Amino acid sequence: MKTIFSPLHSRRHVKTELDGGLLIEPHEKPSRAETILARVKDQALGEVLPPEEFGLEPIKRVHTADYVAFLETCWDEWVAEGKPGEAIPAVWAGRGMRHRLPKDIDGRLGYYSFAAETSISDGTFEAACASANVALTAQRLVANGERAAFALCRPPGHHAHADLFGGYCFFNNAAIAAQAFRDQGYGRVAILDVDFHHGNGTQAIFYNRNDVLTISLHGDPDLVFPHFLGFEDETGEADGEGYNLNIVYPPNTPYSIWSQGLETACQRIAEFKPDALVIALGVDTFEEDPISFFKLTSDDYLTLGQRLEQLGLPTVFTMEGGYDVDAIGVNAVNVMQGFEGKT
Ligand SMILES: NCCCNCCCCCS
Ligand SMILES: [Zn+2]
């Protein structure tokens, strides 16, 4: 299987993440991508290719032009205001307030985000664009005949809404790849999000559409991020009614239970008969993940890959979460190797 990787991921190098009232070293750190790349090479998974440049148009098929423009300039605006630290949103429109775009950078950061753990500094926009190009290059390979391709995306994307960043995400790489399939004539596309956290952005982007089926298996939002979306009664709206599926699990869920949800998801996908499949691959479902609470083992990712291959679809994997950096390479590449038949 070919892997798409961009060294420009390292332009995303923030030094802070607001967590527990402290500014900690970010969980979403450059070594995540480097560790996965090393494992890809160590396992000779296949060719490693740089992304092609697709520009901002395919990104704007999913994200609003004003949001993209904001991400491009917000760091410079922040610095121009003489702020001493990294750009961190700290104020939002609460209940009864107005969702309008203010002029001030603090207001604009709040308007275009939903969480405060995702700092911005120089290079974030460049890295986010490169990550989208990685996903679009993998999509193009699959559209040109590859059975599957691994988009080694960093920063991740599945928490990003059309005009909101958060959860370490800026551009929704999985949604951008799915929309590219649609724009190239693939009538129906399924997105399966197996990250520990709900793919709130992906759900929101396609929530009123029936041409893209969105499914997510994740930790109970009553207990974990993103807290305010991802419940099982969210099934889509308008034309999209019945085309969103959330499967929620409690702490300490092992693969033997989680895979029952995977089975439900695979059956829904088979029923939908998509022309292409995008897997939003987070491996923060791992038993040792520092910010999650499922109990999947490294071998379970081989089994997961095998099951996904049985769907028999052209498949793009977009890398999402996974924060046990020592294990992320084995866990992510196990999915690809399982997909290719390794047991
Ligand atoms: N105390 C940890 C809070 C983490 N909040 C953001 C999680 C984003 C996961 C992206 S896959
Ligand atoms: Zn996650």
UniProtKB/TrEMBL annotation:
One of its GO terms (biological process) is epigenetic regulation of gene expression. Keywords: Hydrolase, Metal-binding, Zinc. Its cofactor is Zn(2+). InterPro entries: HDACs, His_deacetylse_dom, His_deacetylse_dom_sf, Ureohydrolase_dom_sf. GO terms for molecular function: histone deacetylase activity; hydrolase activity; metal ion binding. It comes from the Bacteria. It holds the Pfam family Hist_deacetyl. Residues 28-336 form the Histone deacetylase domain. Belongs to the histone deacetylase family. This is Acetylpolyamine aminohydrolase.
